[in-house]
Design brief:
- The structure is a single chain.
- About 30% of the residues lie in helices and about 35% in strands.
- It has 10 helices and 13 strands.
- Strands 1, 2, 3, 4, 5, 6, 7, 8, 9, 10, 11, 12 and 13 form a 13-stranded mixed beta sheet that branches.
- A hairpin with a 2-residue loop joins strand 2 and strand 3.
Length: about 300
């Protein structure tokens, strides 16, 4: 590792970053979709977070990105080129980006680990502890079986609605207006309120252009973030969001923590598990309830 330089990323590095991400995502699949343009999320992470690349002899071999919002630092990216797997480069990137935040007043650092045992071992060695499984779900809208009916109305919110941004900060555990703006502008997300008897019980987004979902399901709508103050309301809001989205797209995708009450209901309705991640963190007292909060993606959790 002595010939490796870890440095802050620049816009000129993002083509290489995109290539590493794409290769990692499609390595086990014989017929992936074309790579396409650099996703807007990488520019967003570069502009509003901290991104580093690992370089040797002018070649970028890995990268990482950390998004800090309020008291939460989320590791949004950690990828190593397949030529440099199992070389210690991932650990070098991780320990390079984590110390400044881990020593800052007990700040929570967390991420979603892939199902690769090497990745989970890497995070555990760096001081993060596995907390719960996180399930990625997909369904063909036309094949969904009816879930239990819910008396919840879905109402469009105004983009940038300060009340919706406030609800997300309360339920998701950190203020992040820049991410709300990103979802609307770059993910073509519809902001929604969920009402019972005219009163809001939850908020959410349905994204038309989630870069992670689009790689495998380009016609799918992605649900999240979506949250409520109680688990009962969270279940009703998710079911209402699924019904709303199923009328507008042929496929749906979302990710759910193991504790979320919508998980067994959606599986019974016809969603299937496509991937299992693990939520890991430096503290057990996370600032959100996994029974009440459905994240945006594994990048902007």
């Amino acid at each position: 590792m002595s010939d490796i330089t870890i440095r802050p990323a620049t816009p000129g590095d993002l083509d290489h970053v995109h290539n590493i991400w794409y290769r990692a995502e499609v390595e086990d699949f014989p017929h992936p979709l074309p790579k396409g343009d650099v996703p807007a999320i990488f520019y967003h992470e570069l502009d509003t977070g901290r991104m580093y690349v690992a370089e040797a002899a002018g070649r970028i071999l890995g990268y990482t990105a950390l998004i800090t919002r309020g008291s939460v630092s989320y590791l949004a990216e950690l990828y190593v080129h397949d030529d440099a797997q199992s070389s210690g480069l991932g650990y070098a990137l991780l320990t390079h980006i984590l110390p400044p935040v881990r020593s800052n007043g007990g700040r929570l650092v967390c991420t979603l680990s892939s199902d690769d045992p090497r990745a989970l071992a890497l995070y555990i060695r760096a001081g993060l502890t596995p907390r719960w499984p996180h399930y990625l779900l997909h369904a063909a809208a036309g094949r969904l079986r009816p879930a239990r009916p819910v008396a919840v109305d879905v109402v469009a919110a105004q983009p940038g609605d300060p009340d919706l941004v406030r609800w997300d900060a309360e339920i998701g555990g950190r203020p992040r207006p820049a991410d709300h703006a990103f979802w609307i502008e770059h993910a073509e997300a519809a902001p929604l309120w969920f009402l019972r008897e005219g009163q809001p019980i939850g908020y959410g987004y349905v994204q038309a252009r989630s870069h992670e979902v689009a790689l495998w399901h380009p016609e799918a709508l992605a649900l999240g973030p979506l949250g409520a103050h109680t688990a009962t309301d969270a279940l009703d809001c998710v079911l209402a969001a699924v019904a709303w989205a199923a009328e507008r797209a042929p496929e749906l995708a979302l990710g759910l923590p193991a504790a979320h009450p919508a998980l067994p209901v959606l599986l019974a309705a016809g969603f299937r598990i496509t991937y299992v991640e693990t939520f890991v963190s430096t503290r057990s007292d996370v600032p959100f309830d996994p029974a009440c909060y459905l994240p945006s993606s594994s990048t902007l959790f």
